[in-house]
Amino acid sequence: MIRIAASCAWILTVTLTATYLGATWKSTAEQSTDSPHSPERLDRKKTEPISVPVIADGNVAGYVVAQFIYLIDPEALNRLAAAPDAFITDEAFRKLYVEKIDFAHLEKYDLPALTRFLTTQVNRRLGADIIKDILVDQFNFVSKSDISK
Predict the structure, then answer these.
(1) Pick from 100, 103, 90, 96: which is nearest to 142 by CA?
(2) How do strand 59-72 and strand 50-56 relate by DSSP bridges?
(3) Residues 6+ apart with CB under 8 A from 73
(4) CB 62 within 8 Å of CB 146
(5) CA distance 104 to 102
(6) Is there a contact between 60 and 141 (Cβ–Cβ < 8 Å)?
(7) CB distance 122 to 131 below 8 Å
């Protein structure tokens, strides 16, 4: 009977120790991977859509309609005098207006290069590394003929 009680106590001790270590390890691992720039600590904000006219042969051929999502540290956002939305849409408009885009093959447009460019330019204009990432929410071309229907 004493052997059974000792075995049960040993099993209980091992189980409790394993449970404690597992919970402690998971908690420590979660804390160590939490950096100030992890997605859990960033606010997700969406810009208003922009319409960029596409000029071909001196006429408006259509519009690029784009909308972006940006990730920003909430503390940095509170310190800004103006929201970054205007800077993001301004930089996107300027870039897309002068860009030569093949609208027959819009899927080949380098969106990662665009979002990297926007992030760099907006952070430069804000004077700090405030925008952590810019994502594309919407990117479409609407031809002039589709608008008049």
Answers:
(1) 103
(2) antiparallel
(3) 36, 37, 41, 42, 43, 130, 132
(4) yes
(5) 5
(6) no
(7) yes
Helix axes 111-126, 85-98, angle to 10 degrees: 130
Count CA atoms closer than 13 A to 32's CA, side-chain side. 6
> Residue 68 has which token pair?
């972006």
Contact 131, 99 (CB under 8 A): no
What is this structure's pTM? 0.69
Identify the DSSP state of 72.
E
Q: What is the pLDDT of residues 68-79, one digit of tens each?
A: 999 999 998 888
Task: Indicate the residue type of 65.
Answer: V
CA distance 15 to 53: 67
pLDDT tens digits for 80-129? 888 899 999 999 999 999 988 777 677 778 899 999 999 999 999 999 89
Distance of CA 131 to the CA centre of its chain: 9
